[in-house]
Amino acid sequence: MSFERKSGIILHPTSLPGPDGIGDLGPEVYRWIDFLDSSGTQLWQILPLGPTGYGDSPYQCFSAFAGNPLLVSPLVLFEEGLLRIQDLKERPDFPADEVDFGAVIGWKTLLLNKAFLAFRDKPQPALEKEFDAFVETQKNWLNDFALFMAIKESQDLHSWIEWSEPLKTRQPGAISEAQTQLADTIQKHKFNQFLFFRQWARAKAYANQKGIQIIGDMPFVISLDSSDVWANPGLFLLDEELNPTFVAGVPPDYFSETGQLWGNPLYDWKFHLETNFEWWVARLRSILELVDMVRLDHFRGFAAAWHVPYGNETAIEGEWIPGPAVELFTELKRNFPSLPIIAEDLGVITPDVKSLRDGFDLPGMKILQFAFSGDPEDDFLPHHYPVNCFAYTGSHDNNTARGWYDDATEFEQQFCRDYLNFDSEDEAAWAMIRSVWQSVANYALAPIQDFLGLGSKARFNLPGKMDGNWKWRMTSQDISVELAKRIRKMNLLYSRLSPAEKTKYTNWVAAHRGDQVSPH
């Protein structure tokens, strides 16, 4: 990982503008990348890209390897002859500023089904060849995933835990029968994945051509209702009936008095050791095909994970159980020598977590919103940041900067104003951005909501809240030339432009030294 000073913006693709109720990989993603480029921003951070399940959360996906078909652009499918113009004219009237997931799922599924029928019934030889190559290269996960989704569809989307015993336990006869009876549906799900990976690869290539790197996100745990657990139960701590013996979460913390009970199964580390972490290597390799670096969510879980007995209603009772973290990361580094990983080292951080992070020279995270308790020695205050870290105003789990300030205590607000040297509440978000940008941290990032100065209504996720998350979207008007110029000026002032842009500015200064003009 390079150590040049850079800046980034957090925006999940579902939050992009667009006509189909959810952000997608059509024209607006390229407009967004152009905006990043014009603002001098070199990092684009996203959340997991998988197919969302329970609660529409990108951290509860039906697969650790698959992509989210809801991100496929209908406009691109129309341009490629897979949809007709009249198909798009049936579009519902979606809200512009949030995702109505129920309506979006119905609409996008309808269009994806039509695109598959067009592909099946009106062959395009070049597209078929490309599809066949995709199916072959991704077969290690794709075959199980497509079968899983096809059976799930035939079972009214019930969790695989509720399927009949032969399907639940993958008895050969039942699997063979499902493969025969559901062959067309299986092919449809493979095609949906092909469309997602194809459109994402184009968007990523466009970003990389402009010098923009994409930061992805790898959750520590996997959803119980996923093809990974169904197809590979030996990877997880399950009982004879395939129920988890323990589920993941965290004890009471900053976000919740009763902890966070995620409900995900935990890993059988003995099995992973015996297989030389083959699944983890494949998982990271798959993600690095989609992004340039990866944020490891809940990094402390690798050192020790909070194991809550299955059936408990809160995460209060549990036990920290260590895993073979050093062995795992040694194997990952052997396969990926640059180890382009960011350690999400927030929450309860013990010496073993710090040792793991520093032993593999992984940058950690700093969140400015956590800094204003009144203690000048607080590690989250920018004057304590190390150089090798990713510093944020807040993450997707935090309130917006303005929302945090509005909800903070009077004491916290005063400490924040004193430390950041501003007066008006309207200045809070940009004052926080400036503080992070001018810090010594090599990497400075903020959610797009903070650049827009938005309040709590624009919050993307509230940990522990079971519904209403992940919905926020920005509008087309939010991506403005004026905002790009303001961000670019910040990147220039705090040396976060690309080397080429810095050289251009240095040359300009040399040519105009003494002139009463400014290049920005």
Question: In brief, what are we looking at here?
Answer:
With 520 residues, the protein is an alpha/beta fold. The chain is 42% helix and 11% strand. The protein has helices at residues 27-38, 74-79, 85-88, 101-121, 125-137, 139-154, 165-168, 172-181, 183-209, 227-231, 269-274, 278-288, 300-303, 325-335, 351-359, 401-407, 410-420, 428-438, 448-451, 481-493, 499-512, and strands at residues 6-10, 43-45, 213-218, 246-250, 260-265, 293-296, 304-309, 319-322, 341-343, 364-367, 389-392, 443-447.
Based on the model shown, name its key terms:
12 strands; 11% strand; eight-stranded parallel beta sheet; 21 helices; 520 residues; single chain; globular; alpha/beta; TIM Barrel
Report on this model:
The chain is an alpha/beta fold. It has a domain at 1-218: Alpha-Beta Barrel (TIM Barrel), CATH 3.20.20. It contains 21 helices and twelve strands. The strands form two sheets. It has an eight-stranded parallel sheet with strand order 9-6-3-2-1-12-11-10. A four-stranded antiparallel sheet has the order 5-4-7-8. Helix 5 (125-137) crosses helix 6 and helix 6 crosses helix 9 (183-209). The protein is globular and about 80 Å long. The mean pLDDT is 95.
Hey, roughly how much beta strand do the residues contain?
5-15%
Question: What are the segments in which pLDDT stays under 50 over at least 5 consecutive residues?
Answer: none
- Structural class based on helices, strands and sheet pairing: alpha/beta
Termini gap: 30 Å
Q: Outline, from the CA principal axes?
A: globular
